[in-house]
Amino acid sequence: MNIMLNPNSEDQLVELPVIQILETLGWQHRNCFDEFEGGQSHLGRENKSEVVLKDRLRSAMETLNPKTPTLAIDLAIEELTRYRMSLSIMEANRQIYQLLKDGVKVTVQDAETDAEIVQVVKVVNWTQPEQNDLFLVSQFWVSGDLYTRCPNGVGFVNGLPLLLFEFENIIQNLQTDYNDSITDYKDTIPQLFWYNALILFSNGEDSCISSLTASKEYYAEWKHIGNEGETGVVSLDTLLERVCIPERLLDIIENFILYNALIDNNTRRIRILEEMAQTIYQEWFIHFRFPGHENVKMVDSELGKIPENWEVKKLVDVSVNHNHKRKPLSKAQRTQMQGHFPYYGSANVLDYVNVYQFDDNYLLLGGDGTVVTEEGNPVLQRPCGKFWVSDHAHVLTGRDIISTDFLYMCLSNVEISPYITGSAQPEITQVNLNQILIIIPSRDILDRFYPIVNDIFQLSRNLIQRNQKLVETRDLFLPKLISDRTDICDLDVEVSEV
Length: 498
Hints:
By secondary structure, the chain is an alpha+beta fold. The chain is built from twelve helices and 23 strands. It has a seven-stranded mixed sheet with strand order 1-4-7-8-9-10-11, sandwiched between helices. It has a four-stranded antiparallel sheet with strand order 15-22-19-20. The protein has a four-stranded mixed sheet with strand order 17-16-21-18.
């Protein structure tokens, strides 16, 4: 038993039992408070910014893939550990878990034929959970771009940091732990959460566990290891013994991945639907091959040749701006308001809160920071239902005969660079936003176009809302999966195709 706690830690009374219980469940343990003392890591890390234990990962993958060439394993490790800082934590996490579930696809050269072949390199042994390498590191130092942090414990499965343990002394509550520790970690060392499946909190008396995306209200407290009528069982012991047994842990993680797969499936369907609508839009309004176009005269305009009776208008004339309703929330405020309503920034969802400002179909256009796509178009988001938005995105709806969906398709095809100001911090001001020019077709063409695309966008909105519900349901049911009171087959989830 290798138990050497940080001598300055005030949380030994919580941390020590965790180490002892996990060791009885088959976990190895090492305290790494002094990992880099002497200049070299005894975990094999090159520096503290690395969160994957590559030596253990390689060893596990070689065991799982005995006939796989070394090059294929090298490429798989490279994919698993590649830099994902440009992604949100949730998107990076989603990518990693897809690799864990399906294996890592790599392309290598066949030794006999020199032809390129695709091989799938397994990362986790799902069928024999006890064959995976389970390793607890206490006092694990991690460096971000600006700061270095030391989580109390990180649970590695085959060298990947899938569990995060955070302990406080008994006088502190779990909400304080979440506010002061986990939120800070997400800001300062986000790479640790690319791989995270479960987060565990304990102050010795109360313990809770949930997924990366769950708000505090969905964190489950455990006081019973068997049935709900039992009493007198220590919560921390209960949680560890229910969750950290290899077969149970892998089952929970696999079910977690299933929810992500359902969300991914819906996301793929949303993308297909949007591509369908955009294809029709571009055919009619970019290439001008709308029904009856052969008999329509083309005339000059500010944006080149357009069909007769069509107009070029400024965005301010065909949209309603709702920027006055925006109210930014600080990180501290969002921490206190954790929930399941999306909080939008300029380019993506930054957080989830328990209140909302808007409840309908809107269009968001990035106002500062991330404002232009690689194709040169504005950064757009299409929230629907209940949400909150920061002051970094313009909030729009269509006006009069111009629907919000049509406005979205128009702006998706606008070259936005002429309207951007600022160099260090690109910005689209309200003034410049109003000046964006778009082509408005005649009323009779719109009347023929809307029935074709309205159903497409309605289905897309339904899928967006279904994904929001799936995230909430996943976080709600995770405690039941842990307690063994619910089977994944009993959950109200749906897989369907376009």
